[in-house]
Write a structure and sequence with these properties.
Helix 1 runs antiparallel to helix 2 and helix 3 crosses helix 8. The protein folds into two domains: 245 residues, Aspartate Aminotransferase, domain 2 (3-Layer(aba) Sandwich), CATH 3.40.640; 132 residues, Aspartate Aminotransferase, domain 1 (Alpha-Beta Complex). The radius of gyration is 21 Å and the shape is globular. It is an alpha/beta fold. A seven-stranded mixed sheet has the order 1-7-6-5-4-2-3, sandwiched between helices. The protein has a five-stranded mixed sheet with strand order 8-9-12-11-10, covered by helices on one side. It is built from 14 helices and twelve strands. It binds ligand P1T. The site of ligand P1T has 18 residues, from helix 3 and helix 4.
Protein backbone atom coordinates (compact mmCIF):
# COMPACT_ATOMS: atom_id res chain seq x y z
CA UNK A 1 0.00 0.00 0.00
CA UNK A 2 1.54 3.29 -1.09
CA UNK A 3 2.36 5.64 1.77
CA UNK A 4 1.10 8.74 0.07
CA UNK A 5 -1.98 7.60 -1.81
CA UNK A 6 -4.29 7.21 1.17
CA UNK A 7 -5.50 9.36 4.05
CA UNK A 8 -4.22 9.11 7.61
CA UNK A 9 -6.86 6.76 9.01
CA UNK A 10 -6.84 4.47 5.97
CA UNK A 11 -3.09 4.04 6.47
CA UNK A 12 -3.53 3.67 10.25
CA UNK A 13 -5.88 0.74 9.66
CA UNK A 14 -4.23 -0.97 6.70
CA UNK A 15 -0.49 -0.31 6.26
CA UNK A 16 1.60 -3.29 7.35
CA UNK A 17 -1.50 -5.48 7.66
CA UNK A 18 -2.43 -6.10 4.04
CA UNK A 19 -3.87 -9.65 3.79
CA UNK A 20 -1.39 -12.22 2.49
CA UNK A 21 -2.94 -14.15 -0.41
CA UNK A 22 0.13 -16.17 -1.39
CA UNK A 23 -0.20 -19.94 -1.71
CA UNK A 24 -0.67 -21.45 1.77
CA UNK A 25 -1.21 -18.09 3.50
CA UNK A 26 -4.38 -17.53 5.54
CA UNK A 27 -5.40 -14.01 4.46
CA UNK A 28 -5.51 -12.64 8.04
CA UNK A 29 -6.83 -9.06 8.18
CA UNK A 30 -4.94 -8.54 11.43
CA UNK A 31 -1.23 -9.23 11.53
CA UNK A 32 -0.48 -12.34 13.64
CA UNK A 33 1.67 -12.12 16.79
CA UNK A 34 4.86 -13.83 15.68
CA UNK A 35 6.23 -15.00 19.02
CA UNK A 36 9.07 -17.02 17.55
CA UNK A 37 12.46 -15.62 18.55
CA UNK A 38 14.23 -17.49 15.76
CA UNK A 39 13.41 -18.41 12.17
CA UNK A 40 14.57 -21.63 10.52
CA UNK A 41 16.17 -22.00 7.13
CA UNK A 42 15.85 -25.15 5.04
CA UNK A 43 19.53 -25.44 4.16
CA UNK A 44 22.67 -23.69 5.36
CA UNK A 45 23.21 -21.91 2.09
CA UNK A 46 19.58 -21.13 1.27
CA UNK A 47 18.39 -17.62 2.19
CA UNK A 48 15.80 -17.33 4.97
CA UNK A 49 12.32 -15.97 4.31
CA UNK A 50 13.62 -12.57 5.46
CA UNK A 51 13.85 -13.19 9.20
CA UNK A 52 16.60 -14.78 11.28
CA UNK A 53 16.30 -13.66 14.88
CA UNK A 54 13.63 -11.47 16.48
CA UNK A 55 16.01 -8.87 17.92
CA UNK A 56 17.13 -8.12 14.35
CA UNK A 57 13.69 -8.28 12.78
CA UNK A 58 10.29 -9.74 13.56
CA UNK A 59 7.22 -9.81 11.28
CA UNK A 60 4.82 -8.28 13.83
CA UNK A 61 7.29 -5.54 14.76
CA UNK A 62 7.99 -4.93 11.08
CA UNK A 63 4.28 -4.42 10.39
CA UNK A 64 4.20 -1.81 13.17
CA UNK A 65 7.39 -0.13 11.93
CA UNK A 66 5.98 0.23 8.43
CA UNK A 67 2.67 1.58 9.77
CA UNK A 68 4.46 4.14 11.95
CA UNK A 69 6.66 5.24 9.03
CA UNK A 70 3.65 5.67 6.77
CA UNK A 71 1.84 7.85 9.32
CA UNK A 72 4.82 10.22 9.79
CA UNK A 73 5.44 10.19 6.01
CA UNK A 74 8.89 8.77 6.83
CA UNK A 75 10.84 6.25 4.79
CA UNK A 76 12.00 4.15 7.77
CA UNK A 77 10.48 3.25 11.14
CA UNK A 78 11.96 1.55 14.21
CA UNK A 79 10.13 0.32 17.30
CA UNK A 80 11.71 0.13 20.76
CA UNK A 81 10.86 -1.18 24.21
CA UNK A 82 10.26 2.35 25.59
CA UNK A 83 10.52 5.98 24.60
CA UNK A 84 13.78 6.24 26.53
CA UNK A 85 15.15 3.15 24.76
CA UNK A 86 14.37 4.87 21.44
CA UNK A 87 16.09 8.06 22.63
CA UNK A 88 19.16 6.16 23.88
CA UNK A 89 19.50 4.35 20.56
CA UNK A 90 19.33 7.66 18.65
CA UNK A 91 21.99 9.20 20.91
CA UNK A 92 24.25 6.16 20.52
CA UNK A 93 23.77 6.31 16.74
CA UNK A 94 24.83 9.92 16.34
CA UNK A 95 27.23 10.96 19.06
CA UNK A 96 30.89 10.45 19.82
CA UNK A 97 32.54 11.44 23.12
CA UNK A 98 33.33 15.16 23.08
CA UNK A 99 30.23 16.06 21.08
CA UNK A 100 27.83 18.81 22.08
CA UNK A 101 24.02 18.57 22.30
CA UNK A 102 21.71 21.58 22.21
CA UNK A 103 18.49 20.79 24.05
CA UNK A 104 15.25 22.64 24.75
CA UNK A 105 15.10 23.57 28.43
CA UNK A 106 11.53 22.21 28.77
CA UNK A 107 11.81 18.45 28.18
CA UNK A 108 10.38 15.36 29.84
CA UNK A 109 12.31 14.89 33.12
CA UNK A 110 13.49 11.41 32.10
CA UNK A 111 15.04 12.77 28.91
CA UNK A 112 16.94 15.37 30.94
CA UNK A 113 18.03 12.63 33.36
CA UNK A 114 19.36 10.62 30.40
CA UNK A 115 21.36 13.62 29.14
CA UNK A 116 22.53 14.89 32.56
CA UNK A 117 23.18 11.73 34.54
CA UNK A 118 24.01 9.09 31.93
CA UNK A 119 25.40 10.62 28.73
CA UNK A 120 27.29 13.35 30.58
CA UNK A 121 29.41 10.58 32.13
CA UNK A 122 30.62 9.70 28.64
CA UNK A 123 31.86 13.22 27.92
CA UNK A 124 28.91 14.73 26.04
CA UNK A 125 28.18 18.37 26.82
CA UNK A 126 24.58 19.63 26.84
CA UNK A 127 23.43 23.26 26.56
CA UNK A 128 19.80 23.89 27.52
CA UNK A 129 18.15 26.86 25.84
CA UNK A 130 14.72 28.38 25.56
CA UNK A 131 14.12 27.09 22.04
CA UNK A 132 10.80 28.94 21.71
CA UNK A 133 13.10 31.66 20.38
CA UNK A 134 15.09 30.01 17.54
CA UNK A 135 17.88 32.60 17.76
CA UNK A 136 18.68 31.27 21.27
CA UNK A 137 19.52 27.97 19.58
CA UNK A 138 21.81 29.64 17.05
CA UNK A 139 23.67 31.46 19.83
CA UNK A 140 24.87 28.26 21.52
CA UNK A 141 26.00 26.43 18.37
CA UNK A 142 29.59 25.24 18.75
CA UNK A 143 32.08 23.64 16.40
CA UNK A 144 31.32 20.24 18.01
CA UNK A 145 27.49 20.59 18.12
CA UNK A 146 25.97 17.43 16.60
CA UNK A 147 22.37 17.34 17.78
CA UNK A 148 19.51 19.71 18.53
CA UNK A 149 16.80 18.04 20.64
CA UNK A 150 13.35 19.58 21.10
CA UNK A 151 9.85 18.60 22.20
CA UNK A 152 6.94 20.58 20.85
CA UNK A 153 4.56 20.93 22.64
CA UNK A 154 6.93 20.44 25.54
CA UNK A 155 6.41 18.49 28.73
CA UNK A 156 4.96 19.85 31.02
CA UNK A 157 4.72 23.55 30.05
CA UNK A 158 3.35 22.95 26.53
CA UNK A 159 5.69 25.45 24.90
CA UNK A 160 5.85 25.42 21.10
CA UNK A 161 9.07 25.56 19.05
CA UNK A 162 9.25 26.64 15.43
CA UNK A 163 10.41 23.37 13.84
CA UNK A 164 11.12 24.91 10.40
CA UNK A 165 13.22 27.76 11.80
CA UNK A 166 15.23 25.43 14.06
CA UNK A 167 15.71 22.93 11.21
CA UNK A 168 17.22 25.75 9.10
CA UNK A 169 19.67 26.64 11.88
CA UNK A 170 20.53 22.96 12.32
CA UNK A 171 21.22 22.40 8.65
CA UNK A 172 23.24 25.61 8.18
CA UNK A 173 25.54 24.18 10.84
CA UNK A 174 25.51 20.53 9.78
CA UNK A 175 23.60 19.51 12.92
CA UNK A 176 20.88 16.84 13.15
CA UNK A 177 17.48 18.01 14.47
CA UNK A 178 15.54 15.53 16.62
CA UNK A 179 11.90 16.28 17.46
CA UNK A 180 10.04 14.37 20.17
CA UNK A 181 6.51 14.22 18.72
CA UNK A 182 4.95 12.36 21.65
CA UNK A 183 2.44 15.05 22.64
CA UNK A 184 0.75 15.43 19.25
CA UNK A 185 1.47 12.19 17.37
CA UNK A 186 1.69 12.26 13.56
CA UNK A 187 -2.06 12.89 13.41
CA UNK A 188 -1.57 16.50 14.50
CA UNK A 189 2.09 17.17 13.59
CA UNK A 190 4.62 15.80 11.09
CA UNK A 191 8.04 17.20 12.03
CA UNK A 192 9.91 15.48 9.15
CA UNK A 193 7.79 17.48 6.69
CA UNK A 194 8.85 20.65 8.52
CA UNK A 195 12.56 19.84 8.16
CA UNK A 196 13.36 17.68 11.20
CA UNK A 197 15.78 14.81 10.56
CA UNK A 198 14.57 12.40 13.24
CA UNK A 199 11.25 11.98 15.05
CA UNK A 200 11.13 10.12 18.35
CA UNK A 201 8.06 9.00 20.26
CA UNK A 202 7.13 7.59 23.57
CA UNK A 203 4.66 5.19 21.90
CA UNK A 204 3.50 4.47 25.45
CA UNK A 205 1.32 7.57 25.08
CA UNK A 206 -1.10 8.41 22.22
CA UNK A 207 0.31 5.94 19.70
CA UNK A 208 -0.52 2.82 21.71
CA UNK A 209 -3.18 4.84 23.53
CA UNK A 210 -4.50 2.50 26.21
CA UNK A 211 -1.93 2.68 29.04
CA UNK A 212 -1.04 -0.98 28.55
CA UNK A 213 2.12 -0.82 26.43
CA UNK A 214 5.52 0.70 27.14
CA UNK A 215 7.04 1.49 23.75
CA UNK A 216 9.11 3.88 21.70
CA UNK A 217 9.60 4.76 18.05
CA UNK A 218 12.10 6.45 15.77
CA UNK A 219 11.18 7.68 12.27
CA UNK A 220 13.60 8.97 9.64
CA UNK A 221 13.69 9.52 5.90
CA UNK A 222 17.45 9.77 5.38
CA UNK A 223 18.95 6.39 4.38
CA UNK A 224 22.30 6.88 6.09
CA UNK A 225 20.63 7.88 9.39
CA UNK A 226 18.35 4.84 8.99
CA UNK A 227 21.38 2.54 8.55
CA UNK A 228 22.96 3.83 11.75
CA UNK A 229 19.77 3.44 13.76
CA UNK A 230 18.99 0.00 12.32
CA UNK A 231 22.50 -1.19 13.23
CA UNK A 232 22.21 0.05 16.84
CA UNK A 233 18.61 -1.15 17.20
CA UNK A 234 19.92 -4.66 16.69
CA UNK A 235 23.29 -4.21 18.43
CA UNK A 236 21.84 -2.55 21.56
CA UNK A 237 18.72 -4.74 21.51
CA UNK A 238 16.12 -2.52 23.22
CA UNK A 239 13.42 -3.67 20.76
CA UNK A 240 9.63 -3.83 21.17
CA UNK A 241 8.30 -7.35 21.85
CA UNK A 242 5.96 -9.03 19.32
CA UNK A 243 3.03 -8.88 21.75
CA UNK A 244 3.56 -5.18 22.49
CA UNK A 245 3.97 -4.58 18.75
CA UNK A 246 0.56 -6.19 18.22
CA UNK A 247 -1.07 -4.08 20.96
CA UNK A 248 0.45 -0.95 19.45
CA UNK A 249 -0.77 -1.89 15.96
CA UNK A 250 -4.22 -2.37 17.44
CA UNK A 251 -4.11 0.97 19.26
CA UNK A 252 -2.95 2.96 16.22
CA UNK A 253 -6.04 2.02 14.21
CA UNK A 254 -8.10 4.46 16.30
CA UNK A 255 -5.42 7.15 16.68
CA UNK A 256 -7.34 9.80 14.73
CA UNK A 257 -10.65 9.01 16.46
CA UNK A 258 -9.06 9.11 19.87
CA UNK A 259 -7.09 12.29 19.30
CA UNK A 260 -10.10 14.18 18.00
CA UNK A 261 -11.93 13.24 21.20
CA UNK A 262 -8.92 13.90 23.49
CA UNK A 263 -8.66 17.36 21.96
CA UNK A 264 -12.40 18.08 22.21
CA UNK A 265 -12.29 17.19 25.92
CA UNK A 266 -9.12 19.24 26.48
CA UNK A 267 -10.81 22.32 24.96
CA UNK A 268 -13.90 21.83 27.14
CA UNK A 269 -11.77 21.44 30.29
CA UNK A 270 -9.58 24.45 29.39
CA UNK A 271 -12.71 26.58 28.93
CA UNK A 272 -14.02 25.47 32.32
CA UNK A 273 -10.73 26.01 34.19
CA UNK A 274 -9.98 29.39 32.68
CA UNK A 275 -12.96 31.01 34.38
CA UNK A 276 -12.65 29.18 37.73
CA UNK A 277 -11.86 31.40 40.71
CA UNK A 278 -9.35 28.92 42.19
CA UNK A 279 -7.31 28.62 38.98
CA UNK A 280 -4.38 30.98 38.48
CA UNK A 281 -3.54 30.18 34.85
CA UNK A 282 -4.27 27.59 32.16
CA UNK A 283 -1.66 26.54 29.60
CA UNK A 284 -3.08 24.93 26.44
CA UNK A 285 -1.72 25.66 22.94
CA UNK A 286 -5.28 25.76 21.57
CA UNK A 287 -6.14 28.84 23.65
CA UNK A 288 -5.56 32.23 21.97
CA UNK A 289 -3.94 33.31 25.27
CA UNK A 290 -1.10 30.76 24.78
CA UNK A 291 2.08 32.70 23.83
CA UNK A 292 2.75 30.52 20.77
CA UNK A 293 -0.85 29.90 19.74
CA UNK A 294 -0.33 31.46 16.30
CA UNK A 295 2.74 29.30 15.61
CA UNK A 296 0.87 26.18 16.75
CA UNK A 297 -2.02 27.06 14.44
CA UNK A 298 0.36 27.16 11.45
CA UNK A 299 2.65 24.28 12.34
CA UNK A 300 0.14 21.70 13.56
CA UNK A 301 -3.31 20.50 12.61
CA UNK A 302 -4.41 20.23 16.25
CA UNK A 303 -3.38 21.06 19.81
CA UNK A 304 -3.63 17.69 21.52
CA UNK A 305 -5.19 16.48 24.72
CA UNK A 306 -2.75 17.66 27.40
CA UNK A 307 -3.05 20.88 29.32
CA UNK A 308 -1.36 22.28 32.42
CA UNK A 309 -2.75 24.70 34.96
CA UNK A 310 -1.76 26.33 38.21
CA UNK A 311 -4.14 26.50 41.12
CA UNK A 312 -4.10 29.21 43.77
CA UNK A 313 -2.62 28.31 47.15
CA UNK A 314 0.26 26.04 48.05
CA UNK A 315 1.30 22.41 47.57
CA UNK A 316 -1.22 21.28 50.24
CA UNK A 317 -4.05 22.81 48.19
CA UNK A 318 -2.75 21.02 45.11
CA UNK A 319 -2.59 17.72 47.00
CA UNK A 320 -6.11 18.15 48.40
CA UNK A 321 -7.49 18.89 44.94
CA UNK A 322 -5.77 15.90 43.34
CA UNK A 323 -6.86 13.50 46.07
CA UNK A 324 -10.52 14.56 45.84
CA UNK A 325 -10.85 13.57 42.16
CA UNK A 326 -12.88 10.47 41.33
CA UNK A 327 -12.63 9.95 37.55
CA UNK A 328 -9.14 11.31 36.97
CA UNK A 329 -6.42 8.91 38.07
CA UNK A 330 -3.54 10.52 39.93
CA UNK A 331 -0.81 8.97 37.84
CA UNK A 332 2.21 9.67 35.65
CA UNK A 333 1.94 9.24 31.87
CA UNK A 334 -0.55 10.69 29.39
CA UNK A 335 -2.25 9.88 26.12
CA UNK A 336 -4.34 6.92 27.29
CA UNK A 337 -8.12 6.68 26.90
CA UNK A 338 -8.52 7.34 30.65
CA UNK A 339 -8.03 10.83 32.05
CA UNK A 340 -4.85 11.20 34.08
CA UNK A 341 -3.63 14.02 36.26
CA UNK A 342 -0.35 14.63 38.05
CA UNK A 343 1.89 17.06 39.90
CA UNK A 344 5.09 17.42 37.82
CA UNK A 345 7.15 18.86 40.71
CA UNK A 346 6.72 15.66 42.74
CA UNK A 347 6.15 13.14 39.95
CA UNK A 348 7.27 13.32 36.29
CA UNK A 349 9.79 16.14 36.76
CA UNK A 350 10.97 15.38 40.31
CA UNK A 351 14.42 14.42 38.96
CA UNK A 352 15.03 18.07 37.96
CA UNK A 353 16.64 20.12 40.77
CA UNK A 354 14.07 22.36 42.56
CA UNK A 355 15.69 25.72 41.72
CA UNK A 356 15.91 24.89 38.00
CA UNK A 357 12.37 23.54 38.01
CA UNK A 358 10.89 26.59 39.70
CA UNK A 359 12.83 29.02 37.55
CA UNK A 360 11.34 27.30 34.51
CA UNK A 361 7.79 27.65 35.87
CA UNK A 362 7.26 24.09 37.17
CA UNK A 363 5.93 25.30 40.51
CA UNK A 364 4.50 23.23 43.37
CA UNK A 365 0.95 24.02 42.24
CA UNK A 366 1.42 23.34 38.53
CA UNK A 367 -0.82 20.43 37.56
CA UNK A 368 -0.64 18.50 34.29
CA UNK A 369 -3.81 16.91 32.96
CA UNK A 370 -4.20 14.39 30.14
CA UNK A 371 -7.81 14.48 28.94
CA UNK A 372 -9.10 10.99 28.20
CA UNK A 373 -11.98 10.08 25.93
CA UNK A 374 -14.69 9.96 28.60
CA UNK A 375 -17.72 12.30 28.54
CA UNK A 376 -16.56 15.90 28.91
CA UNK A 377 -19.44 16.77 31.26
CA UNK A 378 -18.39 14.03 33.70
CA UNK A 379 -14.77 15.20 33.63
CA UNK A 380 -15.77 18.81 34.28
CA UNK A 381 -18.12 17.82 37.14
CA UNK A 382 -15.27 15.87 38.71
CA UNK A 383 -12.88 18.84 38.49
CA UNK A 384 -15.60 21.17 39.80
CA UNK A 385 -16.28 19.14 42.97
CA UNK A 386 -12.54 18.71 43.65
CA UNK A 387 -11.84 22.44 43.29
CA UNK A 388 -14.53 23.42 45.83
O1 LIG B 1 8.18 6.42 29.34
P1 LIG B 1 8.83 6.16 28.01
O2 LIG B 1 8.00 5.36 27.07
O3 LIG B 1 10.23 5.62 28.13
O4 LIG B 1 8.97 7.58 27.27
C1 LIG B 1 9.75 8.63 27.75
C2 LIG B 1 9.19 9.94 27.28
C3 LIG B 1 9.76 10.56 26.18
N1 LIG B 1 9.28 11.73 25.69
C4 LIG B 1 8.23 12.33 26.27
C5 LIG B 1 7.74 13.64 25.71
C6 LIG B 1 7.59 11.75 27.36
O5 LIG B 1 6.54 12.38 27.89
C7 LIG B 1 8.08 10.53 27.89
C8 LIG B 1 7.46 9.87 29.07
N2 LIG B 1 6.66 10.72 29.84
C9 LIG B 1 5.99 10.36 30.98
C10 LIG B 1 6.03 9.13 31.51
C11 LIG B 1 5.20 11.43 31.59
O6 LIG B 1 4.34 11.17 32.45
O7 LIG B 1 5.41 12.59 31.20
Amino acid sequence: MSNYKYGFSTKAVHVGEEPDFREGATGDVVVPIHLSTTFARKKVLLPTAGYEYTRSSNPTRKALESKLASLENASYGFAFSSGLAAETTVLLSLLKPGDHIIAFDDLYGGTKRLFNNIFSEYDFAVSYVDATEPENVREVVRENSRLIWIETPSNPLLKICDIKAIADIAHENNIVLVVDNTFLSPYFQKPLELGADIVVHSATKYIAGHSDVLGGAVLVSNASLADKIAYRQNAVGAVLSPFDSYLTLRGIKTLALRLDRHQQNAFAIADFLISHAKVKRVIYPGLPSHPQHQLAAIQTTGYGGVLSFEIKGDIRDAERFLERLNIFSLAESLGGVESLIELPSLMTHASIPKEIREKAGITDTLIRLSAGVEDADDLIEDLKQALL
